[in-house]
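Example 3.2
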Amino acid sequence: MSTSPPQRLRDWIAAPAYPWITGGAVTAGAVVELIVIPGGVTTTVGVLVSAVSLMWRRSFPPVAVLTVAAGLIGFAGDVNLYLAIMVSGLTGCYSLGRNRVLHPALTVTGGALGALCVNLVHINTWSRMDLPVPALWERGSLSLFAESFLVTVVVFGAVMMGDAVRSREETRTERSLAQAQLIAMERQQAAAAERAAIARELHDIVSHSVSMIAVQAESVTYTTPGLTPEARDGFQQIAATARSSMAELRRLLGVLRTPQGESALTSPQPTLDHLAELVDQHRAVGGTAELRITGERVALPAAWELSAYRIAQEALTNARKHAPGVRTVVEVDYGADRLLTLRVQDDGPGTDSRPGAGAGHGLTGMRERAALVGGRLSAGAGPDGGFLVEAELPWGSG
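Structure, written as tokens:
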């Protein structure tokens, strides 16, 4: 697809070779101009340095100070204003504003002082050329400074134009970044909404359809007389398959309901083996915590491991939020009766200082995670004071 002429022009200006081509063209024009209209040594050096330095204005923006200064010196050396000085001076002032080498006010002030110095040099030159030059502060003497006023206005315009282009590009970049962030946020929200919808559908399946299959298949073996042993085995297999499907669907539901930003689909899910790291993180942010483990470590199904870890994580978060600085104890008991017990207790003031402790989103989420694997969770004041979160997660029937 062909691009428009303005876009092609912008692409050419943005090309790395652009400052070298334009700087070389101005230098060539300056050489021709000096041949046609020879100047003194000061003028010749000022014109050439001002033109040549344009080649580095993009790779080393501060060189534009030399461009403008050399142009003013070249102009001061001769009463004639060379076209090359005009082009290089304007380009240098624009580059100073475009790259914010100095604050625009400082750049314009420096340019005005330089123009005044050049004007004073010219006034002295005019007086030595026997031209009618009125004495300073006499009638008509202000007209002698028209040159400095004009140069100052030109410098001001070039610097402000460069600064305006810079501000416009920064605004365009910020707008593009904000749009990209908004699009990314909308995509994340859409993905989260889709995950929540899938989770709700799976919850319905687990709670109703599959669970009814398991219950009915198992109950048939006790309520239907005269079943053959083969039929009883068949119904038991149906019930076992249904229970296995329920465990897998619950595990998938736990993955779908993982808090956003934890890369649940691409990163390994945390397990009870990560509790020590979780406690260390709690200590690193200023909390005091201790991990106690009783019983023999058992490799539990993924849904049980994840639920227990998330409950401990949320309980520690609540302790930091509602009772910062208190001592917290995390206890994990791998019971011999295939029951995992998790306790998180702190020695804070209890529930009085925790608004909504009985109905907060964090506690609701913990209860849901416990119920997801057929367990239960209680939260409230501990027997010895403080706040206690206790979860019992049976894992033998999954």
